[in-house]
């Protein structure tokens, strides 16, 4: 879980919301501009909590804070409904809802993410509500750019920003989800100051190294002496489940190859590598795939990761020798 509250605390948007709340001067409409596309909705939810929570800063423990996180708070309504772009129907629904009194809170909060995707007619529809909103309504719009927004809209909202974050902050936010510290650091440093970019760079780098390790094991692990070396290396470098699933993919491809169904292999760039894996036949590949199924079960029962990998790759090696002798 990413600690969005901690991440946002020093942003301009957060400080403005806190200050406006403290002075009793919350605006009826905000536009939050941030280069972050993937997590902007989570950021908007933090700001909605500032408005809804009884404490000055979100306590994260009250009914409002928890229900906003779970998207189940009756007085916070989020648009767009399709999560992609704001349609005229979204704006119409927002306007209709704005006349319905809040149920649990004294404020009714609307989150309108991807505001930059609104066409002119949707923006014009929204304009009247922005000009004279029903009492106690607060609209929090989010956008990655203001360029597509009409000047009439821009002039009726209070603009705040969540800018790029420092590398340190991004690392701190993502370190629970991205356990390979070194790789995370590289991803963050090559990113653009947004969480989304860092996360996708990390995942790309990780996917690559999983496949590399899988081929390394299948091509170069030739004796039981290698087992310990590889299991330590794998458990240290990547998530065990990712390795098992990568191994499953490659063994499936190897099975196609040994069965003469090369055309069914989707990752055609794997083919030369698959051809350099020696000593497997249909029997030992199927045996290995059975062991993979079993390893998922063992993983569920919290087996020690290094020992699980050790057991799995040893079994695969063992199967290879058994089937060679038959
Ligand atoms: Zn709270």
Question: Would you mind describing this structure in some detail?
Answer:
The protein contains 15 helices and five strands. The chain has 326 residues and is an alpha/beta fold. The protein has two domains: 4-163, P-loop containing nucleotide triphosphate hydrolases (Rossmann fold, 3-Layer(aba) Sandwich); 181-325, Zinc Finger, Delta Prime, domain 3, CATH 1.20.272. It has a five-stranded parallel β-sheet, sandwiched between helices. Strand 2, helix 5 (88-98) and strand 3 form a beta-alpha-beta unit. Helix 12 (240-258) packs antiparallel against helix 14. The chain is elongated, with a radius of gyration of 26 Å. The relative contact order is 0.10. The mean pLDDT is 93. Bound molecules: zinc ion. Residues 53, 55, 58-59, 62, 64-65 line the site of zinc ion. The site of zinc ion has 7 residues, from helix 4.
């Amino acid at each position: 879980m990413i600690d969005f509250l901690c991440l946002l605390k020093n942003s301009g948007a957060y400080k403005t919301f806190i200050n406006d709340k403290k002075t009793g001067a919350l605006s009826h409409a905000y536009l939050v501009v941030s280069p972050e596309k993937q997590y902007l909705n989570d950021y908007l939810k933090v700001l909605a909590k500032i408005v809804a929570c009884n404490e000055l800063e979100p306590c994260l423990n009250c009914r409002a804070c928890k229900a906003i996180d779970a998207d189940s708070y009756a007085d916070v309504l989020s648009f767009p409904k399709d999560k992609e772009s704001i349609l005229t129907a979204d704006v119409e629904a927002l306007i209709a809802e704005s006349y319905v009194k809040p149920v649990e809170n004294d404020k009714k909060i609307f989150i309108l993410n991807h505001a930059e995707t609104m066409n002119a007619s949707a923006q014009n529809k929204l304009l009247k509500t922005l000009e004279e909103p029903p009492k106690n309504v607060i609209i929090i719009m989010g956008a990655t750019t203001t360029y597509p927004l009409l000047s009439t809209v821009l002039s009726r909202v209070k603009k705040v920003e969540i800018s790029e974050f420092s590398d340190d902050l991004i690392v701190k936010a993502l370190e629970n989800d991205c356990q390979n510290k070194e790789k995370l650091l590289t991803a963050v440093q090559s990113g653009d100051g947004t969480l989304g970019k860092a996360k996708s760079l990390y995942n790309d780098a990780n996917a690559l190294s999983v496949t590399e390790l899988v081929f390394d094991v299948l091509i170069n692990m030739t004796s039981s002496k290698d087992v310990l070396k590889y299991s330590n290396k794998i458990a240290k470098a990547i998530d065990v489940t990712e390795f098992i699933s990568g191994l499953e993919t490659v063994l499936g491809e190897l099975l196609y190859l040994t069965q003469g169904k090369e055309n069914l292999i989707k990752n055609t760039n794997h083919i030369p590598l698959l051809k350099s894996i020696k000593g497997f036949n249909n029997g030992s590949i199927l045996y290995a795939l059975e062991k993979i199924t079993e390893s998922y079960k063992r993983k569920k029962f919290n087996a020690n990761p290094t020992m699980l990998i050790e057991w799995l790759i040893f079994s695969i090696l063992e199967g290879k020798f058994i089937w060679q002798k038959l």
